[in-house]
Design goal:
The structure is a homodimer. Chain A contains 19 helices and 8 strands. By secondary structure, chain A is of the alpha/beta class. Chain A has a 4-stranded parallel beta sheet with strand order 2-1-3-4, with helices on both faces.
């Protein structure tokens, strides 16, 4: 279908059509320039090219069709929202748009200027009515991970039904576990009330399996990037990670496994992208919501591949699986807690676990250096960079901290810094 | 005693004497310029003038003497640290320096530049060894109220013993209460271990009484400011609030009650400071650690009085008392929780309680307008300003939001904004 044919659907969703057209055109051009100009891409990326071309079209139509069939759509924004419970209630979870400079002027009509671009961007998409995912949602689920998100959800509640889960920030106490588990149970009730479906043990087990399979497929793709040459660009791998928050889960898992098959074959054949004599960079830090491809594209434009992402769009999402130790509902919910509380977001204190994970990952992926991404005004990742840098230094892995927003003003400056950084790195 | 005579003590505390001298001279000059030039001050402020002149001298000597007698000093920074448990363990709690631009360059050798000046300032005082309170402390107690403090405590732990309490951010659930209560109990144990003193019911009851008396005295002073003309300048009242975090509790309570007596008499006699035909402003928002007198001094330099502070240095500290419902240790600890969880810091979500309190206070103090203070990069108060502004507007009270740090570059700009703001206000 063409955009013109989708226009009716977008209008029904309450989008600002004129503005939305501007966004779509910019997205298509940006994608073409960055992705389609890459050389020697895996054939399996064809599917993801198609998905992105239909990201506001076909996929939204699927969501709208589900809504017409009485199903619910949940919008979320953070790994701590247990999607297993969403799917167990026969609802669908989608990521919210939040990676574009485009929507920030709309956000700044309400919010302060000096908060994280991701938060401003997602809020701006709602205020400006330019995100069909947002406008498809029956409920947005937030969390108390960081100050900016936590307080913006309160403001967002004036625009759309919003539910907030508390995430405790010290994870080593019994009471912290009790609070988190109780929040997971409250969220289960919330999903049951919203959908009218009781979450039974079997449907939750099936949802756990569904999401675990998705994560295993993503982990397979990630594992292939340990090879030299890396079989896929960082930019393409990033896109796969980003799409995991939007696409239909079963289809995404199938296509990601097909891509993994191809990448494993590439590795066996010694086929890859880029020059294996160059250093390899690992990305660590704040997440990159779609279409934030800024740092990856800058880094790879210098001829150096990104081989891993220690990020919520990346390893933090797919590394651990939900693995119940028993068959009761309590066991299933505890397994969800067990998995989720192991995701080392910088919101935790202390967070030595993340520091260790970054160092371990850099070694596992043979990274010559780490580019540490701080979204502007993100206090947690910014301050945690001090400890990460110290630990990486001790392990002999140099780190470059880049604090940036979604603007293009600093692109050349960042490119120069990345070039200077990689020049001093020896290939691993 | 003279500064020269204290030099030995400061040296023993590990202070950087040269730097500390520069600080003391700047402090004395700033205080003289701002406070001693005020007209018609209450005689009771003489005590506070003396305390500030000895804030790094006599008071520190008292702390050092206590340390020599085997007692412990706890440094803290936030109303959520239950000082009742500190005093019940026969330790002393002091505020940490955190209101001066002076220490920020030292902080920025380690921390990012774009975080709250209060956090940078207190950290810089430790790194630069210029705060005798910090260097007197046996332990610093932090909390998880905001991202910047939470993550900086982790870094601070490399410099000084640091203990962190978790403060849950949703306060309306059973589990949140359970977590908070358990954190209060853990803190009790922590104090017992540090001091070697078991906290008995009687000592805790006595400590609750001690702190309640202090707060009642402060509330008395605050209540007198509802009169027109106000019997005390905002600057002087702010100083009393600030000193409550440093001074000996019993002496402070005595002297604050004496001041309250005088102010009540002033009100009875119709004596006050400033021109009763002018508008009256209320202050709301981020706290002002000593010697942050910036906004109050700018506002009052325009001839308009500040009549109340909805802030942690202000009403949030002294409004509610710990009022046990029973006599058991559990009742006492629950009463502490009950009081503390009622302090409406912007870290909570949702935080409608604070919004209501701001509006109520503005009415109680006959404020013509509210100046809302955001310390630069403080996300929680900054974003919460949206809801506060809306509620005040509805109540017919105009609000001026001022986002500022500790620098002097924006003083004239803020003065112009305050003047323009008060010009449009009618006196109440």
């Amino acid at each position: 279908m063409t955009n013109q044919q989708y226009a009716e659907m977008w209008k029904d969703l309450g989008l600002n059509l004129e503005k939305h057209d501007v966004l779509l055109n910019a997205l298509a051009k940006g994608y073409g320039d960055l992705f389609m100009t890459q050389k020697n891409r895996p054939a399996g990326m064809g599917y993801f090219d198609f998905v992105i071309s239909e990201v506001h079209g076909l996929r939204i139509k699927e969501l709208v069709d589900r809504k017409k069939a009485g199903k619910k759509i949940i919008g979320a924004f953070c790994l701590y929202v247990p999607e297993e419970l969403v799917y167990a209630a026969d609802a669908t979870m989608v990521g919210l748009c939040g990676g574009a400079d485009f929507s920030i002027p709309d956000a700044e009509t309400v919010l302060p200027r000096n908060i994280c671009p991701l938060v401003k961007s997602f809020f701006g998409f709602k205020v400006g009515a330019t995100c069909p995912y947002f406008n498809s949602c029956d409920m947005v689920v937030g969390e108390t991970t960081c100050d900016a998100k936590k307080k913006v959800y309160e403001v967002l509640a004036d625009y759309t039904p919003t539910y907030v889960m508390e995430i405790p920030h010290k994870v080593d106490t019994e009471q912290s576990k009790a609070l988190w588990l109780s929040e997971i149970k409250l969220f289960k009730q919330q999903m049951e009330t919203l959908t009218g479906n009781v979450i039974e043990k079997d449907s939750l087990k099936e949802a756990i399996r569904l999401i675990n399979e998705k994560k295993k497929a993503m982990k397979r793709v990630s594992d292939t990037r340990r090879a030299s040459p890396t079989p896929i660009s960082g930019l393409d791998a990033l896109l796969v990670n980003q799409m995991s928050f939007y696409d239909d889960v079963n289809r995404f898992t199938l296509k990601t496994n097909e891509l993994a098959d191809e990448l494993e074959k590439r590795n066996a054949d010694g086929v890859g992208v880029g020059d294996p004599s160059k250093p390899r960079l690992m990305f660590s830090g704040c997440p990159m919501a779609i279409p934030n491809w800024k740092l990856h594209s800058i880094i790879e434009s210098t001829g150096v591949p990104v081989v891993a992402e220690e990020s919520c769009i990346g390893s933090r999402y797919f590394t651990d699986l939900v693995e119940p130790k028993g068959d009761s509902m309590d066991s299933l919910l505890e397994a969800i807690w067990d998995r989720y509380h192991n995701i080392s977001c910088a919101c935790f204190t202390p967070n030595d676990d993340r520091v260790t994970k970054v160092v371990d990952m850099a070694k596992e992926y043979n990274a010559s250096g780490v580019v540490y991404n701080v979204l502007q005004y993100c206090h947690t990742y910014n301050i945690e960079a001090i400890k990460v840098d110290k630990a990486l230094k001790k392990a002999g892995v140099p780190m470059l901290k880049v604090e940036t927003d979604y603007g293009s003003e600093d692109v050349e400056q960042i490119r120069t810094r990345v070039e200077a950084f990689t020049e001093m790195l020896s290939p691993v």
